[in-house]
Amino acid sequence: QVQLVESGGDLVQPGGSLRLSCTAPGFTSDSCGMDWYRQAAGKQLEWVSSIGIGTDGSTVYADSVKGRFTISKNKAKDTVYLQMNSLKPEDTAMYSCRSPLCNYWGQGTQVTVSS
Fold first, then answer.
1. CA distances (Å), 50 to each of 60, 68, 90, in order?
2. CB 99 within 8 A of CB 66
3. For 26-48, how does the pLDDT look when each residue is reduced to its tens digit (9 = 90+)?
4. Which residue in 60, 53, 65, 73 sits closest to 95, CA to CA?
5. Residue 47 forms beta bridges with which residues?
6. Which residues contact 89 (CB under 8 A, 6 or more apart)?
7. Is 37 helix (H, G, I), strand (E, B) or coil?
8. How many CB atoms lie within 10 A of CB 102?
């Protein structure tokens, strides 16, 4: 198991934006793909978004974030991003990234949406 490092979590007001990053030395998103998950306090783990393998990895989103979140990757930086716009209080959670295909796992970064 290889450790991914997430960053970008913060406290933000409703309607605001954040960009989460997920990276590890040597991680190759083209070969591995990436999933973002989130877990709110007292709730089950929820899948958020995925980007597939290949140069133009296909992207998919949970209905709860479709149209507001965008997953992307920067191959040169070995980094996958989750751009989150129009944030709502119900988006508050610990967000983590993982790539089971390549056995990469992250610990998470906290996102809190509150006024």
1. 5, 14, 20
2. no
3. 888 888 999 999 999 999 999 99
4. 65
5. 37
6. 14, 113, 114
7. strand
8. 19
Using alpha carbons, list the distances in angstroms from residue 70 to 8, 27, 97, 111.
14, 20, 14, 16
Q: List the beta strands (DSSP E) in the chain.
A: 2-7, 11-12, 18-23, 34-39, 46-51, 59-61, 69-74, 79-84, 93-99, 104-106, 109-113
| 94 pLDDT more than 90 | yes
* pLDDT over 90 at 21, yes or no: yes
Q: Are the CB atoms for 61 and 48 separated by under 8 Å?
A: yes
Share in percent of the chain as helix, strand, coil (round to 5): 10, 50, 45
pLDDT score, position 91: 98
Say how far apart CA 56 and CA 94 lie, in whole Å.
Answer: 27
